[in-house]
Amino acid sequence: MPEPFAAQVMALEANYLRVRLDHPGPDGRRLLLCTRRARLAHGGLKVMVGDRVGVEGCDWIEGRAAVGSLEPRRNQLQRPALANVDQVLVVMALAQPAIDPESLSRFLLSAETAGAEVIPVLSKADLVSAQQRQQWLDRLVGWGYQALAISRHDPARLAALEDRLSRGVAVLCGPSGVGKSSLLNALVPDLQLRTAAVSGKLQRGRHTTRHVELHDLPSGGLLADTPGFNRPELPADPELVAQLFPEIRQQLEAGVRCRFRNCRHLQEPGCGLQRQWERYPSYVELMG
After folding, report:
1. Which of 5, 133, 272, 279 is the least crowded, having the fewest Cβ atoms under 10 Å away?
2. Torsion angle, CA of 16/20/22/25, rounded to 10 degrees?
3. How far is it between the farthest Cα atoms of the chain?
4. What secondary structure does DSSP assign to 180-213, as a single string?
5. Burial code of 203-239, b = ≥16 C-beta within 10 A, e = fewer?
């Protein structure tokens, strides 16, 4: 039996998988439409966009094949269902609607659950003053992030974001109305063809994605176009919460030590954590 072809799942559409081969097939083709082998389902394996898979039974004339094996994932998101994520872009508008610190914090914490690099992206930067933009960028440094302020009217700011994107898989999250669709269209121009009619009231296009799909970025990376990633979800286990705060991780990596290995960094005796940081009250609240 021939060796399977290594590939990556680019999209899930109904009962089919669209995959891209790492190397062209005999006819130069790289994109194939695939079914799943029954053994994957019998083994309880669910295939996600972003998964690395083995493709077999290729019909090069029809461009069809079957996914027969699934490589171990580095990480995964559940909403949207996406595997092997390298970067999560948390998009929040500086204006229209005005930025909500509590909402931004929860989206950042939710993004941290992926175990990937998290990049806050402050959209609509042209609608606020330079001083207001800088105040938010400085504030997010205190939260442990190197954020970016962008505007669709400022190509240089968009280029700075493109430079930050790796050659891996990136995904957007954030509440409605913050400019995620505009950012997708700016980073992946082909998506302009997949925007619905403009709303007469808001004079904005409505993004019409119905499934998760990966698109090529000029940088060589991939950007996930998703049907929605609008409600942040946090782990129910309080012991996992501390790992989501860069402010805590940075102190521990710098050598801060607590008397007890299972320290919750609240009021335990011998806790070495410095507590004078902005989001510490939020951490205490989440720890319950």
Report:
1. 272
2. 90
3. 70
4. HHHHHHHHSGGGGGGB-PPPTTT----B---S-E
5. eebebebeebbbbebebebbbbbbeebeebeeeeeee
Count of alpha carbons within 13 Å of 41, Cβ hemisphere only? 6
Q: How far is CA 61 from CA 27, 30, 32, 113, in A?
A: 9, 12, 11, 42
Average pLDDT of the chain to the nearest whole number: 87
Q: Which of 158, 210, 156 is nearest to 184 (CA)?
A: 158
Antiparallel, parallel or unpaired: β 52-59 and 64-70: antiparallel
23 pLDDT band, cuts 50/70/90, is: very high
Q: Whole-model pTM?
A: 0.86
Which sign does the torsion angle of CA 230, 195, 29, 65 carry? positive
At residue 108's C-alpha, the angle toward residues 106 and 113, to 5°, is: 100
